[in-house]
């Protein structure tokens, strides 16, 4: 049976682990460890390998959900993770010092994968910091010459994560019917 | 990054007769592979293209050069031209030459945007400097005592209490939506007269007054109160928020009422200078976009807004922020389709096999937020009606969608 997967990426603390937990049918496998470097200024534990969750589809098929570790020193894993992926969910933390820089970094890092598939962007922590606004992200994306879905997302809320994934899937094929 | 997903440049074709206009519009879509689309409203354009060999163009070209607009200008002519202030393509037009100048124009726009952003950055840095030290001393190498994100958190302490503003969107299926609407007028997509008649004027409803109030508030950068004889709406343009003490049921009821000239006199905008709200009222905040989007949906009731020409293709400037908006039936699919390329409303309904009412509702809501534009009248140049090419994994994607919708 084929391995179908969606990749969640983004900087440390953007909510990748939480989003996978929110949408997964089984308790996700986490590989968190106590943060020991600069990461600990943002969260006490961080993902050091990857997160994994699964959605059980009809006919016994499974959709695998993989979260990349946020720290850049693990970027050698990203190519392996994306192989055969359906698309990319990029989560950005709106309280970070420069979320646009994060966005550019991850779009560049996954450029080949995005070119083959699609990307949908979720901006988290907007209830903590309401700026930049979604329109500001769209403006920056316009400068990069792409126009993907960008939604405000609370990674703990199933409906938010669900809508983001649906937008990714409809971007791949608007003709899909529910 | 590859070209896939790159947005087409929006171009205005100026000073051309109908035949030249259509030919060039077709050329941009065909041989130039959608690198640019023509827009009828010049204000929506990112690039101007002018044919300098047409008599009426000469005056226009001189005017454009005199204005020194920041918008890139592409001049087409049989004779070589150029003074450094515009891009030039010699006729007969070669596709490579046209694609090259379009790429230059895109680069010019991106550089201009970067310059703008840098200006904003300088402004905000100045603001930080002013606040940094009351004595006026700013040490350039001094590190802030708290990380920037924490600073922002402190500034936005109240943001978390605005629970309505951050609440997840309501996602509606056809049955639920129709029930809430109290029945929508069904439109036969094959009957062009019915389609044309399925329109409404937002100005006849509260929607028009609210849109107008938003516009004034933003233009003046002023906190305003819209008085309507119903519930007051407080508009905060700096934070893109409104405060309204009414639930969705009340708003839906008011949205559908036609406001006649007598009621019109009750409408007024007043400036608010004192701090109007206490902490307990934070739950009544919502974004301006969220309120206007749902108001347009309720007002539309399956009709499209004037003054749009329903036979012309629509394009979507960017995706609506669906997680914080009312998600009407098929809205995500319609958005995905319109982001790809401009299409007419009937083409969308036919392509997605959905009722036109759902397309019209989406058009109303997206138009109210300024997300929608109309391409030039080029339905006859096959801009839209191409069939969708299904994704190879369509079966799988459909099962994932079904699963997500069930949750």
Give a description of the structure.
- The complex is a heterodimer of chains A (178) and B (407).
- Chain A contains six helices and eight strands.
- Chain A has 178 residues and is an alpha/beta fold.
- Chain A has a single domain (8-172), classed as Rossmann fold.
- A six-stranded mixed sheet of chain A has the order 4-5-1-6-7-8, sandwiched between helices.
- The longest helix of chain A is centred in the C-terminal third of the chain and has 15 residues, at 158-172.
- Chain A starts with a strand and ends in a 6-residue tail after the last helix.
- By secondary structure, chain B is of the alpha/beta class.
- Chain B folds into three domains: 9-110, 3-Layer(aba) Sandwich (Rossmann fold), CATH 3.40.50.2300; 170-197 and 303-407, no CATH class; 199-301, no CATH class.
- Helix content of chain B is 42%, strand content 13%.
- Chain B has 14 helices and 14 strands.
- In chain B, the strands form four sheets. Chain B has a five-stranded parallel sheet with strand order 2-1-3-4-5, sandwiched between helices. In chain B, strands 10-7-8-9-11 form a five-stranded antiparallel sheet. A two-stranded parallel ribbon of chain B has the order 6-12.
- In chain B, helix 7 runs antiparallel to helix 10 (288-300), helix 10 runs antiparallel to helix 13 (356-368) and helix 12 crosses helix 13.
- Chain B is globular, with a radius of gyration of 25 Å.
- Chain B starts with 8 loop residues before the first strand and ends with a helix.
- Classes of the chains: A alpha/beta (178), B alpha/beta (407).
- Chains A and B meet through helix 4, helix 5, strand 8 and helix 6 of A and helix 3, helix 4, helix 11 and helix 14 of B.
């Amino acid at each position: 049976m084929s391995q179908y997967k969606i990749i969640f990426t983004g900087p440390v603390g953007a909510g990748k682990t939480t989003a996978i937990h929110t949408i997964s049918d089984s308790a996700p496998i986490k590989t968190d460890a106590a943060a020991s470097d600069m990461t600990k200024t943002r969260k006490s534990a961080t993902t050091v390998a990857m997160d994994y969750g699964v959605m059980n589809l009809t006919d016994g098929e499974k959709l695998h959900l993989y979260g990349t570790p946020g720290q850049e020193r693990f970027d050698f894993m990203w190519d392996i993770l994306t192989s055969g992926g359906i698309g990319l969910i990029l989560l950005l933390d709106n309280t970070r010092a420069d979320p646009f820089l994060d966005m550019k970094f991850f779009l560049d890092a996954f450029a080949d994968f995005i070119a083959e598939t699609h990307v949908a962007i979720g901006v988290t922590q907007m209830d903590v910091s309401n700026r930049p606004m979604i329109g500001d992200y769209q403006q920056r994306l316009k400068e990069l010459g792409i126009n993907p879905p960008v939604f405000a997302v609370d990674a703990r809320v199933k409906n938010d994560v669900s809508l983001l994934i649906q937008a990714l899937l409809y971007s791949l094929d608007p003709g899909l019917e529910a | 990054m590859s070209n896939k997903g790159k947005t087409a440049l929006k171009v205005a074709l100026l000073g051309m007769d109908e035949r030249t206009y259509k030919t060039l519009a077709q050329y941009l879509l065909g041989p130039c592979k959608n690198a640019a689309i023509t827009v009828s409203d010049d204000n929506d354009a990112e690039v101007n293209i002018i044919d300098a060999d047409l008599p009426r163009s000469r005056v226009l070209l001189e005017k454009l050069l005199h204005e020194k607009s920041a918008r890139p200008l592409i001049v087409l002519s049989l004779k070589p031209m150029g003074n450094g202030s515009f891009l030039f393509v010699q006729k007969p037009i070669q596709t490579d030459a046209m694609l090259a100048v379009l790429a230059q124009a895109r680069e010019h726009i991106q550089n201009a945007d970067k310059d703008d952003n840098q200006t904003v950055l300088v402004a905000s840095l100045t603001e930080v400097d002013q606040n940094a030290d009351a004595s006026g001393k700013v040490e350039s190498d001094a590190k802030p005592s708290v990380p920037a994100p924490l600073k922002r958190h402190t500034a936005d302490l109240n943001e978390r209490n605005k629970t309505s503003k951050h609440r997840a969107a309501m996602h509606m299926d056809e049955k639920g939506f129709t029930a809430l609407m109290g029945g929508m007028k069904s439109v036969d997509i094959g009957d062009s007269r019915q389609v044309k008649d399925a329109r409404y004027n937002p100005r006849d409803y509260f929607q028009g007054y609210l849109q107008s109030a938003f516009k004034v508030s933003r233009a003046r950068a002023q906190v305003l109160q819209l008085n309507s004889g119903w519930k007051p709406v407080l508009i905060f343009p700096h934070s893109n928020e409104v405060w309204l003490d009414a639930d969705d049921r009340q708003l839906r009821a008011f949205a559908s009422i036609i406001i006649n000239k007598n009621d019109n006199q009750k409408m007024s905008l007043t400036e608010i200078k004192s701090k109007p709200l206490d902490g307990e009222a934070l739950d009544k905040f919502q974004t301006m976009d969220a309120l206007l989007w749902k108001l347009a949906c309720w007002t539309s009731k399956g009709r499209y807004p004037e003054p749009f020409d329903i036979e012309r293709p629509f394009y979507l400037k960017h995706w609506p922020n669906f997680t914080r908006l009312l998600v009407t039936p098929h809205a995500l699919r319609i958005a995905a389709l319109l982001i790809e390329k401009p299409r007419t409303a009937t083409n969308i309904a036919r392509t997605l096999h959905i009722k036109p009412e759902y397309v019209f509702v989406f058009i109303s809501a997206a138009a109210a937020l300024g997300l929608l534009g109309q391409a030039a009248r080029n339905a006859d140049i096959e801009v839209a009606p191409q069939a969708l090419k299904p994704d190879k994994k369509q079966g799988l994607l459909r099962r994932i969608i079904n699963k997500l919708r069930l949750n």
